[in-house]
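Notes from hallway chat w/ T.B., transcribed later so I don't forget. T.B. wanted the structure written out for a chain they're using in a teaching module, and asked if we could keep both sequence and structure tokens in one place. Agreed to drop them here.
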Amino acid sequence: MGKKRKHNETQKAVVSTQNDDVAPERPQRTLFGWKDKNPKQQEEELEEINNGGTVDSSRPHVFRNKEKVLITCSRRINFRYRHLMLNMESLLPHSKRDNKVEAKESKGATLNELVELKNCSSCLFFECRKHKDLYLWMAKSPNGPSVKFLVNAVHTMEELKLTGNHLKGSRPLLTFTANFEKDPHWKLLKELIMQIFQTPKDHRKSKPFFDHVFAFSILDDHIWFRNYQITVPHNESTKMDRGGLDKMTLTEVGPRFCLNPIKIFGGSFGGPTLYENPYYVSPNQIRALQKKKKAGKYVKKVKAKTRRKMHELSNPMERDEFTDMWRE
């Protein structure tokens, strides 16, 4: 009869077979597709595994954009502004929508908690006041910065009914005017808009091509937003060559709105004020001035009546001698 193997010998045999059957690691997925490791790096890692060591996790990894945006609004929002919020949700495939939030002083902590629960990194909060004024908060959570805008000139897709139409979920091209490079606060706003509105590559809800453009332009210290479809002729006779940009045309899709920056904060929904717009006038002040103008007309009428009465008292009419003739 043969001798039995010792327990140590069996363990060595199992370890040797396991080391021989180690499969190479899958290539890492990056912003630019699947990236294979260098052959030297693969050989070094295999030698470390065969020698019983572990792979060093401190080696630099390729950055992958995992941006997710939470879109929500306040209670008692107007139907027009709610449609604008739904349009923005359809334009951003990497967004998530949540229930309405009460617009109180503690809304910052509530929104930061919602962003963390939804596993997002940014937030678009549409805040409506007095059923008339719409404010938009753009914030990076949890460390900031955040910006508060007053939204004017709102036109939704359903209202405009433009001829442009692009595929839902496709990635947009972001264009900015040269004014964004003048002042530091415009540079900060440009970077914040790029991080929020740019769809990450290889996102599960996005499509891997570009067929529309988000245009951000500065005019009169306001940011104007437009959305255009890139149209290309598809007939066989006039098929566009690679790089032939002359045949491309832009067709507006919508929505339209204008952003008036009010304040830039260092934190998320609060914190130290980094910038304050000196030319901002609140809509309450504008409505008060309009009421004063209307009230001025009534004041003029009252003054005219009092002047007439004073004139009648100072210049009484002479008594007519025939007034009591027919009383007898």
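Follow-up for T.B.: The chain has seven helices and 13 strands. Might be a good example for the class.
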